[in-house]
Every structure is written in C-alpha cells, then in structure tokens.
Amino acid sequence: AAQDVLGQTARLASSSALLQVLFRVLTFGLNAFTLRYLSRELIGVVNVRLTLLYSTVVFLAREAFRRACLSGSAKRNWTKTINLLWLTVPLGVFWSLILGLVWLHLLEVPDPSVVPHYQAGVVAFGLSAIIELLGEPLWVLAQAHLFVRLKVIAESLSVVSKCILTVTLVILYPQWGLYIFSLAQLLYVSVLVMCYGIYFVMFLGSPEATKKSFPVSRVKALLPSFVEDETFVNWKEARLTWSFFKQSFLKQILTEGERYVMTFLNVLNFGDQGVYDIVNNLGSLVARFIFLPIEESFYVFFAKVLERGKTVKDQKQDDVAMAANVLELLLKLVLLIGLTITVFGYAYSQLALDIYGGSMLSSGTGPDLLRCYSLYVLFLAVNGVTECFTFALMCKEEVDRYNFVMLALSFIFLCISYFLTHWYGSVGFILANCFNMGIRIAHSTHYIHHYFRESSHRPLSGLLPSPALLLVYTLSAGVTAFSEVWFCCDKGWMARLIHIGTGALCLAGTLVTMFCTETKLIHFVRSQ
Known about the structure:
Elements: H1 2-34, H2 40-69, H3 78-86, H4 88-106, H5 118-133, H6 136-144, H7 148-172, H8 178-203, H9 207-211, H10 235-255, H11 257-265, H12 270-283, H13 285-305, H14 317-357, H15 359-362, H16 366-393, H17 396-424, H18 427-452, H19 467-487, H20 493-517, H21 519-527
Helix pairs in contact: 1-7, 1-13, 2-4, 2-5, 2-10, 2-12, 4-5, 5-8, 7-8, 10-17, 11-17, 12-16, 13-16, 14-16, 14-19, 14-20, 16-18, 17-18, 19-20
C-alpha cells in the first residue's frame, strides 16, 4: 500500500511541477509583455499590494484546514471533515472585510493619476479570495484521493483564461489600470471553482466513483449537514486545525515577510516594489514549479505512510525504511537542483534580466537581486523538504511548541528585514530571507535527526553530495564568473553567445558528473 501511495504521490508531484511550469512561464511572459505597456508603479501595486491581500486572506482562511484535513488516511468520516472545511468561507469573509478596510484606509493610497481605480482593485481581490474558498471542500477531497488530472486541468484552464483576458485588456484598454487585473483575478478564481464543481457533479454517482468506493455518493453530501446524535465536526481535526492556524499565521508572515515590510513600512516606493517583484518572480520560478509541488505532494506521502505522533519504534519498520529512503533521496535531489541554480545563477543574472526586461531591469539593483536570489533558492530547496517531513510527523504538542519558535523567528525576521533594507535596499530582503530559512532548516534537521536516532536510517546524509561533484561545481562557478567579466553584457551578441556557450559546457560537465556519482538518485528519479 505504501508503494502505491509513493507512485501516486510521485505522479502528483510531477504533474503539479508541470502545472507550476505552465503558471510561471505564462506569468513570466505576461510580466515581460505588460512591462512594455504599463508602468512599474502599476505592476508594483498589483503584484505586491493587491496580491498580498488575496494571498493573506486565502492563507489565513484555509491553510490550517488543509494541513489538518489531509493528515492521516483518506478513510474517515468525510461528512464531519466537509463540515469543518466549509468554515473556511465565513473565515474568508471575516479576513476579507478586516484586511480590506486596512488596505483602503490605513495604508498609503497610490497616486490615482499613476495607478487608477485602487479601491475597486482592493474590493475585487478580497472578493476573489472568498470565491476561491467556496471550492475548498472539493479541493481537499481531490487532493486526499490524488485526483491528479483534475488539478492539472482546473488550474491550467483558470491560468490560461486569466492570461488571455489580461493581454486582451492591456492591448485594448491600457487606461483601465487596476480594472484589468481585477477582472482577470475574478475570472481566474471563478473558472477554478467551476472546474472542480462541474467535475464532482459528473463524478459522484458515476460507475467510476462506485468502483473506487468513493466516500461521498451524492452532490448534496458536499454541503454542510448535521448528523443526528453526532457532533457537527470531528473535534480532533478541529483542535489540530487550531494548532496549525496559529502556526500558519506565523508562517505567512515569514513567507510573505518582505511584502508586509514593503506594504506597511514604506521602505521602497511602488516603482522599486515593481522591479523587486519582477526579479522575485524570475528568481522563484524553480522554487515554485519544482520545490513547492514536491513539498505539497510528499507531505501527503509522509502523512499517509507514517503515523503522526508515534516514535520510529512504534511504526511499521518497512514503512519507516521506505520513508527514510525517500526523504534521503528527496533531500539529495533538491540540494543538487539548488546548488546548480546558485552556481550558474551568479554569472547569468545580468544577462537574463537584460534579455527579459531590457535596461530597466539589468541596470541598477536588478542583477544583484537575482544573484542573491540564486543563493536563496538553495535555502528554499532544503527547507521545503525538511519542513514537509517535520510537519507530517509532528504531534499536536510539538506543533504548539514549534509555534513559539516561529513567533520569535517572525519578530527577528521582520526586524532584520527592516534594518537590512535600510542598509542594502531591496537586496536586504533576500539576505533576511536567507537567515530566516537557515534557522528553519536547523530546526527541521534537528527534528529529523532526533526522530531517526533510534533506528539505523540516516536520511540527512542526502545533504552531502559527492566530493567529485562539489569540485565540478566549484570549477564551474570560477569559469562562468570569469566568462561574465570578459564577455557580458555590453560587448555585443557574439560575446553573449560565447558566455552562454561557456555556461552550457560547464553545465554539461556538471550533469555528467552527477549521473556518474549519484546513481541511486538517478534510479529513484527515473523509476518514480
């Protein structure tokens, strides 16, 4: 059974990764396109201020419910779980109203001549969060039963429709300002929820659902319902949700910390926020489309294979061996991806920005921002996998203890962000994030080491690449840095091509060394 879950989880991770590639490539192209039609200030307000409102409402309303309701097996009282998940909607309305008022009345309002229709944008992005939460019970049902194709189709359709509408309106009515992005955001969430709704209406009661012994048989069962002589929700899940809620509140501050500092403390103007966000999106391409799907999917795997709150001795030893092996190979995989990006990102940041956005991005702080982000990706890579294992195994008391650690960390992170930004500008945000991730990695690796200490498994050895590979990485870093000084980026296209060719040769050498030294990892990637 554990082997089946691993196979399904790997498929879910790979399809989610492909999905994130599509999202990021479209966003990537969309930003490059809109840069030529709209101001940096407008992009800064949409991508930092309004997107922060939407992500905060959605995160606070549903993240804790997702974690609690995806823990344990898919065999449970789904009526009570669905009842619990519907509480995300009133919670979303509450946060939308509170935060919407803050965004409208307490924060600096952009100049209407530069960024028109700000108030309409706040209302639309708050409303879009509530609409998305209407599909939350369906999303959790689909994720718990590993409906890979549904997720791919629903999210692809919604992103593509959003991009088509944005491009059309930007070309035809650029003067509409924030109306463009407001309509596109509302279309995105509406299509997403409709896809899930239509699928479940067709799926429930079908022969396929009967064959899979799907726990919900009627569409009516997807709505909140009372059961006689029983509680409305599963109180164990509800208590776990509350623990995760306290943690998710802090995690959101840590995840979006720099945007909160930008939004509430005005350390950067809207134009600089726009440049920072574009570089941030560019730098986070790999983090979002490879690391996040791995983290989300393997959280489900570890939560299903190992039982939360039990010591390693009390688990099935075959499952422990499989989980330890998968964790070791996942750590090795993300570490090598992160190292590759860090090494090659340093020498190719300026060239990438010059091709992508012209001199507006490649001059000033843009290249330094992207170089620092390349290092940050390495921290993100390792933290994603170590935390995904830790959160899947922690019992309620450990989650509560970790909340205190996160609280202290949140405060330190915000202080460091504020001071580093004053000293180093927008680069300070990324340096503060590296510090934050370093502390979180230290906590998670300590937990993993402690968890496996009474067994013969040592999954943290996945964080040690072979000496030969480290040597090749070091040589590649030196050669590409030297190549950048000589050939990039103001010496014409021939010099640029030589610089790109040098990087391609170094990358090829690195990959060949990887194939020769990391045979166990290569087999895992191919087989799963």
